[in-house]
Automatic annotation (TrEMBL):
Pathway: Carbohydrate biosynthesis; gluconeogenesis. One of its GO terms (cellular component) is cytosol. NCBIfam families: pckA (TIGR00224), PRK09344.1-2 (NF006820), PRK09344.1-3 (NF006821). It catalyses: oxaloacetate + ATP = phosphoenolpyruvate + ADP + CO2. This is phosphoenolpyruvate carboxykinase (ATP). It comes from Glycine soja. Keywords: ATP-binding, Cytoplasm, Decarboxylase, Gluconeogenesis, Kinase, Lyase, Nucleotide-binding, Pyruvate, Transferase. PANTHER family: PHOSPHOENOLPYRUVATE CARBOXYKINASE (ATP), PHOSPHOENOLPYRUVATE CARBOXYKINASE ATP. Its EC number is 4.1.1.49. It comes from the Eukaryota. The lineage of its organism: Eukaryota, Viridiplantae, Streptophyta, Embryophyta, Tracheophyta. It is found in: Cytoplasm.
Amino acid sequence: MASNGNGSVANGNGTARNGLAKIQTHKKHNGICHDDSGPTVKAQTIDELHSLQKKKSAPTTPVTGFQAPFATLTEEERHKQQLQSISASLASLTRETGPNLVKGDPARKSDTQKVTHVHHHHVSTPTIAVSDSALKFTHVLYNLSPAELYEQAIKYEKGSFISSTGALATLSGAKTGRSPRDKRVVKDDLTKNDLWWGKGSPNIEMDEHSFMVNRERAVDYLNSLDKVFVNDQFLNWDTENRIKVRIVSARAYHSLFMHNMCIRPTPEELENFGTPDFTIYNAGQFPCNRYTHYMTSSTSIDLNLARREMVILGTQYAGEMKKGLFSVMHYLMPKRQILSLHSGCNMGKDGDVALFFGLSGTGKTTLSTDHNRYLIGDDEHCWGDNGVSNIEGGCYAKCIDLSREKEPDIWNAIRFGTVLENVVFDEHDREVDYSDKSVTENTRAAYPIEYIPNAKLPCVGPHPKNVILLACDAFGVLPPVSKLNLAQTMYHFISGYTALVAGTEEGIKEPQATFSACFGAAFIMLHPTKYAAMLAEKMQKHGATGWLVNTGWSAGSYGNGSRIKLQYTRKIIDAIHSGSLLNAEYKKTEIFGLEIPTEVEGVPSEILDPMNTWSNKKAYKETLLKLAGLFKNNFETFTNYKIGKGNNNLTEEILAAGPIF
Ligand SMILES: Nc1ncnc2c1ncn2[C@@H]1O[C@H](COP(=O)(O)OP(=O)(O)OP(=O)(O)O)[C@@H](O)[C@H]1O
Ligand SMILES: O=C([O-])CC(=O)C(=O)O
Ligand SMILES: [Ca+2]
Ligand SMILES: [Mn+2]
């Protein structure tokens, strides 16, 4: 076929042979057609073009004078120090030479060339490599940004996808929740008298040697990889009691999760980071060795307080890192007379602070995320002499049955940067189906706290006015709200009650009572009475009021009744915050002796006394007695302990504040 010289194929009369109009192109006077007439790119080769795309991050540390330890160093020296610090973290403790570290992605040649001369800190003069691992390089991906971590996850981690709203949807593997029975704590001269051991304690002992075996296993695994992720971040918004943490992990998912959940350092803070106070080695893809003493499964989460280290083997569930660090805070903070709390926390416009205690799934995140109040944090706090501070830099919300209408702020936080764990989505449009439990019921979203529009930054506040204890009572006999005196607050705090529903699919199942001291027995390190005494002292000193809120069932147990509407629970919480509930009219319930209001604005009065909502009064009474018996049995282990110092009679009052029948 002939061409007419300007590139289009046509017959002589301006109409293409198939009858379509002739394609008009710009005709330059020399008769040559150009692809376009716009400005051209300032590159001669494709590599050059790509190099234009990214500009170097701006230098972050202004030279501020001699108070900053790194200020006199060149950027290159600073990088070298950082790498040496990381190399020290990753060093095997049994070999002469540590890993050779390189900053950057091994897939990118230009990154690799940046720093190839940094060697292990032990090695100042060249030595003969004694093992193959000493010959290879480990690439360190240090404090990557969410965008970089997305790229890593999507390129290299199966099961990573971008959801329709921009979140990173991923899978945590075989474990979709924490493994408390696989937690081990090194028992040594330091911890044997300090910590809570034995019945009811979450601290299952291991010896130092077994810890080192697991540590070496994790470090060798991590060093065998082409690359590891390193996060250097902070815990605790109270800057005087801030802890520097380093997380070494093998997955971009883990790095992004911790980026969101810990406090993110500013570039300046990062450059002056120095040596971490605590290090996590997350080798979760790799199992522990069951021939190792104290190992009872392939999963082990090991805490060594003396070494300030934690090792994770055999579970990729990211919550282990979050809650592992929380355990560390439960040890370190009380030593400084600061109370660590498994609670949410928010603040009203007038500065009134509320704490929300409760076990998993009782509503800490849901109820502390309140559009009319400032969010201080959703899960882990400290209460010290200056007030409260959040330990974390992010939130970890349950997603099952999440709806835009009921929880708009959480819904809107699920966007670019958020980690979405174990959710199910449409294969084409990536719309998440929050009702789908195919992978697990424990679907989760981890997002930075700034994603909540009314987050209080920095996340600190004054002393709490209200202390709200949340229980999801699947028996349906606890009132939706009761006002507690101090002894009752302590009784319920130490009991740490909630009821879970065993099986949600196969029809009616018996609810199961869970008692977890301080609403967080899985994370506390000292005896529960130590935390209880501190809470009592602080509540008394600052005049805080205690409340018990049942976010669980009404009008019958699970199977007959139904969960109290979130809308009603929110009204109850509103009335607590505003102070109006303090002045309501109260009556006392039988057995539990709880003070219940007769009216709450926006809540049908008949549901305030659970007895009214049960059609079968006999069944109500039986269930109430059954639950009271469970409380009594559980509390027996605490009857031999004294709460607080001196000859106060709080201990007796607390014992008397339980159910009487
Ligand atoms: N009346 C209610 N009050 C509070 N939450 C409710 C209520 N009814 C249903 N829910 C649901 O219960 C769940 C409460 O979970 P939430 O994430 O707040 O738990 P959590 O206490 O923060 O636990 P975790 O410590 O595991 O993060 C949410 O999915 C919420 O939608
Ligand atoms: O730790 C987790 O996996 C989630 C959580 O907040 C809890 O269980 O209290
Ligand atoms: Ca939560
Ligand atoms: Mn929690």
